[in-house]
């Protein structure tokens, strides 16, 4: 209470200000005792309140009703004193003392002015503060956002109640908030609204109803909070390629059979005394600037997701699969690395160019591997062997040779075998390594801030073997796997945010522009991207476990299988199942001895993601 009356003086008839349900109300004291006070409001309602609820009390007593109305009417005519910044911070009592205000009408007028002009003043711990111009603008911006939020929540409430169609802005807000809730963030106002309408609610089902899911539902993805649906479409982009010079030759690409988002293409020409190799990477950086909503979306997504149930692209599919994809439909914007070799496939010179190029063919690994007779490929093979021999001291590739990719095709769940060490795949991999190496060298030589891919080496405490872990940094370090002093990723700008960032930085340097991101800004992005990539990997692993169990349920129940014990975890066994190299958690009543086991699956618990087995043999 901003006014304390001496003991023995009657409180009845004094005018007060109180807050009731967030509204500042006038009232008069009808009765006052040591523990509470009865206040008669203007609408004749009487409230029993604690004394602490009174915000301001008059010094004089007034007759009921008539004097209260007259008092309020007179307030509008009271001139307000000038409130300079020197007065603040101060309590209300200190302010009235500094301004020599003692009578009721000026006191109440001043109090209302302070409370009703929260864009100018705010109260904290019993003291009033005056906002400066910057604080006023920030407060007004926050207030506009709060009002906008309230309006959107009202529309969302109507949607929950009657299915009334949401505005695009309200739909985007709801989808983003549901994703955030799934990732463990707190959004109190939405959670309150969900409990009001649904009691217990299913966020995954809400996402599916809003179209934020794949055509074939994926439980791991639907529960993850990772973005699926796009709200930015790129309609603001200028897709004209007139500003780019056209390459004098054509290129071809080699990718997976079912790929649509072709990042890369190759050209090879014989020259006087050697060969000219071109590695051409789709160049979305040509279309984006720093304020592009799609660039921000790509960074926030961090990567495309390739799941058995479908693809969640990093960029909208009409861009990643069509306009930006290096397919055969017209000229394409590319950032090209040209490397000139002599007759013995030794590097003579190299340069990076931003240009447009015609793609003449999109070949698939499976088709080319069966018909490995193209003279272009034979030349490329020799080039890549030379490149590999050059970095002979680099660490060898010890990755698993055969990889099984789970894919849903025509309502059938298939395990597609891929030879990751096939000559053709290793050739393309070598070319991509070459591209990334030279872009890293360009960035290093020209002091372009980029995200380098560095390697930290350590000895695994369990296996006692040397192990590596990759990390992002704005400073390069020696990359033992490649055998180079600097390395980065820039060959998959349609699929990876790091690549599109690096491409933007290098493209801008080529064009004589400043970098989109400073080194400090990139440092701030690193933990954001790495955290999202870790979450993506966890989601992909959960998805693969789910669909592999579906694959086993459909095709391999009650049939003999072979596996290798990987770990014992809380009474369960983690087993890698041959030949697919996928791991499952199993339970068995039998005692498992040794690393190899033969078993039959008789039950799968999808709620627990647990497989019940019987041992055989």
Strand content: 25-35%
Largest sheet features = 5 strands, antiparallel
Helix and strand composition category: alpha+beta
Main β-sheet, spatial strand arrangement: 4-3-2-1-5
The Rg value, from CA coordinates, equals: 35 Å
User: How much helicity do the residues have?
Assistant: 25-40%
Distance from N terminus to C terminus (CA atoms, Å) equals 84 Å
Q: Tell me how many strands there are.
A: 23
Count the domains. 4
How many DSSP H or I helices? 15
Averaged pLDDT: 91
Low-confidence stretches: 3-8
Task: Characterise this structure.
By secondary structure, this protein is an alpha+beta fold. It folds into four domains: 117 residues, no CATH class; 80 residues, no CATH class; 295 residues, no CATH class; 60 residues, Nucleic acid-binding proteins (OB fold (Dihydrolipoamide Acetyltransferase, E2P)). It is 34% helix and 29% strand. Helix 4 packs across helix 5 and helix 12 packs across helix 13.
Architecture blueprint of SSEs:
Elements: E1 14-20, E2 23-32, E3 36-41, E4 46-50, E5 54-61, H1 66-75, H2 92-98, H3 104-116, E6 121-124, E7 127-130, H4 133-162, H5 168-182, H6 188-198, H7 203-209, H8 219-222, E8 246-255, E9 264-271, E10 274-282, H9 293-301, E11 305-307, E12 310-312, H10 317-323, E13 331-342, E14 347-364, H11 365-370, H12 375-390, E15 402-409, E16 412-419, H13 423-445, E17 452-459, E18 466-473, H14 497-510, H15 519-555, E19 560-569, E20 572-578, E21 582-587, E22 596-605, E23 610-615
Parallel strand pairs: 8-14, 21-23
Antiparallel strand pairs: 1-2, 1-5, 2-3, 3-4, 6-7, 9-10, 10-13, 11-12, 13-14, 15-16, 17-18, 19-20, 19-22, 20-21, 22-23
